[in-house]
Amino acid sequence: MADQSKIPQATAKRLPLYYRFLNNLHLQGKSRVSSKELSDAVKVDSATIRRDFSYFGALGKKGYGYNVEYLLGFFRKTLDQDETTNVALIGVGNLGTAFLHYNFTKNNNTKIEMAFDADKSKVGQEIGGVTVYHISDLSERLKNVQAAILTVPGAVAQQITDELIDSGIKGILNFTPARITVPEGVRVHHIDLAVELQSLVYFMKHYPVDE
Amino acid sequence: MADQSKIPQATAKRLPLYYRFLNNLHLQGKSRVSSKELSDAVKVDSATIRRDFSYFGALGKKGYGYNVEYLLGFFRKTLDQDETTNVALIGVGNLGTAFLHYNFTKNNNTKIEMAFDADKSKVGQEIGGVTVYHISDLSERLKNVQAAILTVPGAVAQQITDELIDSGIKGILNFTPARITVPEGVRVHHIDLAVELQSLVYFMKHYPVDE
């Protein structure tokens, strides 16, 4: 396998996208794919795809393209597709419920194992096959879970983050408007819906065409 | 104002984040901010902040930092904060409902003006102050709207995208798993929940600390 530490972050961010598309191709019975086809499908330009793939030592052949099965095998190893990461969902509001109904395991190596909410009327419910527990049981229940999706009100985001970290969580997908502080070694990806919308609008006005 | 076309995309993507934080500082009555404080709050390293700000011609003073009001005035102009962009929400499921309850206008220059869904039981409802119309009325109702948030099932994403474009939409925030094709001049930002989660897990394993 290629030396992981040498893959640039920008390339690494595109890996799950490539994997998902190639997996779909494979399910459709396709055995090869050109960088042009890939480019059209995942909306990343061909030159970038070829450069990305070269980091993994995958070189396309002219007039043939890439071997889908080889790439999939490679990505599966790289993305540790065979090792499932257990995820807890914190905050079963509308956004949290959307996550619970999203079928992550289909193409994916992640599984939402449990959910937590402060609303007692939600406790004990099963949504999308996942049981909802009370937030006060967090540290007691959180076993064998490595990552959390945070969809709680911004005002309690830091407090709950601290509890998650005390329980050994190593990664947080933060969907609250709050920026959270975590110790070194804990990974946070932040998706703020308002910032995403504002960013789209800004780019619409100033960069109408992708550079 | 600085020449917009010279601001790198990576810098431009951070603008809404800076704006939001500075606006909060201003509301709290703070008149100046250091790049260190900004860095701690928005989780972007100080060197990057200083470089970003230098593109806008904003230079911090040693021992003083940046003037909040000056920066806000600058960002407001740059982000066209005074000019509201009208947005339509397509697909009032759990994710769509979360958007409707999200108070975008608070710190923001965007407003969800109308929502559409295929489910007749939702038509006529008002959610978060926004009326839900039937999806078949899309082209008829869609007036004076520049952007759309797409939270429909992936299988109908392209068809609805085509209708949105025929109605003059210039930007789409795509939350479906589908990659959509649009003509030149239409901007698409794609946020796939499964890809975001997979990306977090990949980074947890290989890049536990931000580079």
TrEMBL record, chains A, B:
Name of the molecule in the record: Redox-sensing transcriptional repressor Rex
Subunit structure of this chain's protein: Homodimer.
Residues that, per the record, bind NAD(+): 91-96
Biological process (GO), any one: negative regulation of DNA-templated transcription
UniProt keyword list: Cytoplasm, DNA-binding, NAD, Repressor, Transcription, Transcription regulation
Residue ranges of DNA binding: 17-56
UniProt xrefs under Gene3D superfamilies: NAD(P)-binding Rossmann-like Domain, Winged helix-like DNA-binding domain superfamily/Winged helix DNA-binding domain
GO cellular component: cytoplasm
Domain CoA-binding as annotated: residue spans: 80-179
Domain of life: Bacteria
Locations listed in the record: Cytoplasm
GO molecular function, one term: DNA-binding transcription factor activity
Family of this protein: Belongs to the transcriptional regulatory Rex family.
HAMAP family in alphabetical order: Rex
Gene name of this polypeptide: rex
Family matches, as PANTHER family: REDOX-SENSING TRANSCRIPTIONAL REPRESSOR REX, REDOX-SENSING TRANSCRIPTIONAL REPRESSOR REX 1
Function per UniProt: Modulates transcription in response to changes in cellular NADH/NAD(+) redox state.
Pfam families: CoA_binding, Put_DNA-bind_N
